[in-house]
Amino acid sequence: MASSTGTGKAIFRVVSGNFLEMFDFMVFGFYATAIAKTFFPTDSAFASLMLALATFGAGFLMRPLGAIFLGAYIDRHGRRKGLIITLALMAMGTVLIACVPGYSTLGVAAPLLVLLGRLLQGFSAGVELGGVSVYLAEIATPGRKGFFVSWQSASQQAAVVFAGLLGVGLNHWLSPAEMGEWGWRIPFLIGCMIVPVIFVIRKSMQETPEFEARKHHPTLREIVRSVGQNFGLVLGGMALVIMTTVSFYLITAYTPTFGKAELNLTDLQALLVTVCIGLSNFFWLPVMGSLSDKIGRKPLLLGSTILAILTAYPALSWLVANPSFSHLLIVELWLSFLYGSYNGAMVVALTEIMPIEVRTTGFSLAYSLATATFGGFTPAACTYLIHVLDNKAAPGLWLTGAAVLGLIATVVLFRGNQHQLRTAQSAVPANA
After folding, report:
1. 309 vs 381: CA distance, rounded Å
2. Interatomic CA distance for residues 156 and 145, integer angstroms
3. Would you give the DSSP letter of residue 431?
4. 57-81 pLDDT, tens digit each
5. Residue 98 covered by a domain
6. pLDDT tens-digit profile of 205-232?
7. Are 412 and 236 in contact (CB under 8 A)?
8. Each residue of 183-202: pLDDT tens digit?
9. Closest by CA position to 237, among listed 119, 137, 371
10. What is the arithmetic mean of pLDDT over 119-133?
11. C-alpha pair distances (Å), 206 with each of 7, 82, 212, 357
């Protein structure tokens, strides 16, 4: 992995599975309205959409369990073996969602099988992000850890762009009625077709030198005990992640629903905005990851959260008062810049503060708890807040709250030289 070519291949191998995970999550968010009609038919369009979005969010409730059990497996048996298992579980969930007949055919069994598919995906995703991030951190060249780890999130943006472009094409080739009846299944079937390719790619991964150098590999009991001893750090990490996960799902998965339902834009316009956001995120994440290597994690975390607190709700208020394709794009690009700035520093900071013997488990648990409690339910929470408050700009309040938590977490975790001490300690392998 010393050469740039070898390093590039190593990055590509590990992030390929991350691409599939995010692709599946995005297409569920994109076609939530069609999924609602197929599996959750009710007399109320709002109730059907809320059931579909709740099913989307339910997958995130499995993430903490995946973080603990799969994370412990990876910390004990290696990054490579664990990441192959997560890919298999993700694929099983994708197949279920793609192939299950609708409510009219199977009755109540249909939504239950879709829920099972989401739970499998959530269990897998509970450690996928952490496993990939830790792998990238451990193969990073000196002084470039932020840049390397940023490709975990950047690979997700490639999935957002691909899913968005696919949606644009489907909306061009198929009528709205065809999309609602069966067209929405096509992206999931494409995800099933991608799976074998990614299996081949990921099987050629090498174990990280840092993991191989460790002489002691903790048992599940030891890992759980260590996580318990460092649970305050995990909770701090969770608060740190909330800003990332809320902003990401707000500007990607929720954008098509928000654009259509609240701004009265066409499917094509909403999906085009999503594609642009994916490209914007893909640009900003490596740039800000590199910048965090140069100026430190704290300045980026503080700056982006403060800007989000000051601008999120005013930007959404301006948008709903002046709804248009161009205005939605402007607001989303601004939020994309804030997300890229924050996440470019946050993900690598989270790998640095976790003790090495439970690095994957601790990272994944913090990330999963944040996603399960806030991020994954962002589409449902935003829809609910708009309905209850009768305020289409309410998603801005949700993001502002997340930014406040991110600001507090940054101040606490980075007070004095605490972050530097934890980072130095985490870099020393236990019993190595």
Report:
1. 18
2. 18
3. T
4. 788 788 888 888 887 788 777 767 7
5. yes
6. 776 676 667 666 677 787 778 778 888 8
7. yes
8. 889 998 898 888 888 888 87
9. 371
10. 82
11. 11, 12, 10, 19
The secondary structure of residue 182, as a DSSP letter, is I
Q: Dihedral of CA 379/381/284/206: which sign?
A: negative
The first and second tokens of residue 237, run together, are: 């990490």
The pair of structure tokens assigned to 18 is 């991350």
CATH number where 16 lies? 1.20.1250.20
Both tokens of residue 401? 């709250």
Question: Rounded to two decimals, what is the model's pTM?
Answer: 0.81
pLDDT given at position 431: 41
Structural domain boundaries, residue 298: 4-197+219-426
Question: Residue 214's pLDDT is what?
Answer: 67
In a domain, 26, yes or no: yes
- Whether 24 maps to a domain, the answer reads yes
Q: Which of 18, 1, 19 is nearest to 10 (CA)?
A: 1
Alpha helices, H only, 207-296: 209-213, 220-229, 231-251, 255-261, 267-295
Cβ proximity of 414 and 297 under 8 Å: yes
* Residue tagged 């790619």 (tokens): 201
Residue 105 lies in a domain: yes
Number of domains in the chain: 1
Token pair 């944040």: residue: 370
Query: What is the per-residue pLDDT for 58?
Result: 80
